[in-house]
Automatic annotation (TrEMBL):
Reaction catalyzed: P(1),P(4)-bis(5'-adenosyl) tetraphosphate + H2O = 2 ADP + 2 H(+)
Keywords of this entry: Hydrolase, Iron, Metal-binding, Nucleotide-binding
Signal sequence residues: none
Domain HD/PDEase: 10-137
Recorded superkingdom: Bacteria
Record NCBIfam families: bis(5'-nucleosyl)-tetraphosphatase (symmetrical) YqeK
Residues in coiled coil: none
Protein name, as recorded: bis(5'-nucleosyl)-tetraphosphatase (symmetrical)
Keyword Endoplasmic reticulum: no
UniProt cross-references to InterPro entries, sorted A to Z: Diverse_Catalytic_Enzymes, HD/PDEase_dom, HD_domain, YqeK
Length: 187
């Protein structure tokens, strides 16, 4: 199945979300001098596996050779980013930066490059999201990508904790980097 065919299997709601994320990615890319086409593509492709069932996500991750940690075993939805990244890679359509961005768009991670930071931000602040800080976080990210990334990470952590959910270890490491003030463009 091509990536475009996979996109067409998504609900209209999910397609619209991906299109909004792609648009935010393009805006962040323009502001921070990133490749606009790669940014748009990462936003468009990031949720290709998001509507798979939990059992299907586990099975597909196993088929693709993706390591399934205890967090992913407990919440297989965390696998949708790594699965989509593998699909993009196998389709020959992604640079290392795009693959990193798609892979970590749900959890964030320490030492992410600017395209991956941008996708984590864009997924959280696209205009279809409805929460009080959304616009402020978007404006902060336009001014300062690293600062915006850390702010969206902190906001996501607060949201997870408010729901009684623990942040993924990759997110914890990224937050530690933010607290230490060592987040920087690494690519």
């Amino acid at each position: 199945m091509t990536l475009e065919e996979r996109f067409q299997t998504l609900s209209r709601h999910r397609q619209a979300h991906a299109e909004r994320v792609a648009a935010v990615m393009r805006a962040l890319a323009q502001q921070h001098h990133l490749d606009e086409e790669l940014a748009w593509f990462g936003g468009w492709a990031h949720d290709l596996a998001r509507e798979m069932s939990r059992p299907a996500l586990l099975a597909e991750a196993e088929t693709l050779g993706i390591v399934i940690g205890p967090e992913e075993q407990a919440e297989p939805l965390l696998l949708h980013g790594p699965i989509a990244a593998k699909w993009v890679e196998r389709a020959g359509r992604g640079t290392p930066q795009v693959l990193e961005a798609i892979r970590y768009h749900t959890t964030g991670a320490a030492n992410l490059g600017p395209l991956a930071q941008a996708l984590f931000i864009a997924d959280g602040v696209e205009p279809g999201r409805r929460y009080a800080l959304r616009e402020a976080l978007y404006l902060q990210a336009l001014e300062d990508l690293n600062g915006g990334y850390c702010a969206v990470l902190k906001n996501t952590q607060a949201y997870l904790l408010s729901r009684g959910l623990a942040p993924h270890p990759d997110m914890v490491r990224a937050l530690d980097q933010c607290t230490a003030g060592t987040v920087q463009d690494t690519h």
